[in-house]
Amino acid sequence: MHPPSNLSRRALLRAIGAGGLTFSTLRAAAFGADFASDRPRRTLVLVFLRGGMDGLNLLVPYGDPDYARLRPGIGIPAPGSRQGAAVDLDGFFGLHPAAAPLAPLFASGRAAGVHAVGTPANTRSHFLEQDRWETAVDENGLETPGWLGRYLAASPGRGPIRALALGERLPRSLRGEVPALALPRLDQLVSSGGDPGKLDRTARALEKAYGGAGGALGGAGRTALDAVRQLEDVARNAQPSKVAYPDTGLGRRARELARLVRADVGLELVELDFGGWDTHENQGGTQGQYANRVGELAGALEALVRDLEDRMDDVMVLVTSEFGRTAAQNGTGGTDHGWGNCVLALGGPVGARASGRERPVLGRWPGLARESLNQGRDLALTTDYRDVYAEALAWLGCEDLRKVLPGHEPASVGLV
Hints:
alpha/beta, about 30% helix, single chain, ten-stranded mixed sheet, three-stranded antiparallel sheet
């Protein structure tokens, strides 16, 4: 069958979109690159908590004498003080009680936190700060690729499915010259019974249009077809999960993530977005809307780690948000847009077991005394977010950090 004479990138995108998938850019040079089968089969998972997650109530600095004073209504009690208290980590920091499922990971050295992390030029704007975290460039524009997109362009891969987002949209962090997928749930891509599913229709459209095409765009179409076929195989033959995941949106996506990691399709980067963290009012303390969000996050992550236990040496999970919240609660029982925040990291390469250190929470703690706060209101910044990125990228095998984090000279964090 001869391909149509008017092959175009737009036609290719339409063919892929018919299957419920979304690709980022489709550049021939990127599709034509050789895959490096000898690269480590490592996967970096980024969980982005959109809305500005309150890190002071997740990694609780209960040992700071000003913490309880600043948060009389929403603060998390010190360990052992009463029911619903923080879960102790090191005598100074504790976990929100709803995050208790993660405590054994910290204790075993397979999880760590970094506190007082952020962007030095924080504007407190959701949109601008999400752009910074996703591009790792302060002065970014509409065409600025994401930091993970730059990593993909600067390194060879292990297969046609190198990067994807589990969700309906492709986050900016994955946009760039090398294709990345936005993927709905696997069981939505393949219909039951004899009726062909969405992936079937996508594969047929791509085969018809690009199966015999020459040139750069033909190569792009064939690689996209290969990716679609591999996803179809994973969707049809996925093995049941070994553990019971929470029946939540994030829990279901974590289960899909585990299936994709086990399928060995060359997956290097995955992003899961988890919103609902803009807690200006009625945030709650040990219970309430924030605690519910923390519980969903912790439950999904704990199940993922148990499910991938034999693979977690090759999986690293980073949990980030665009900024923290104000140190003091506001007049409506919530917190406002702040500055420094915490990052969580889980996986085989993370923590004391990997690095030989003993501290479960890293970063220089600036304190919550008024004179120590940023502008008298926020946790100050002591760790640049790009330093956390740099260690994750080095673990992935990035050979030239300057291409991915331009203009930044990384400092050691100690995560890996």
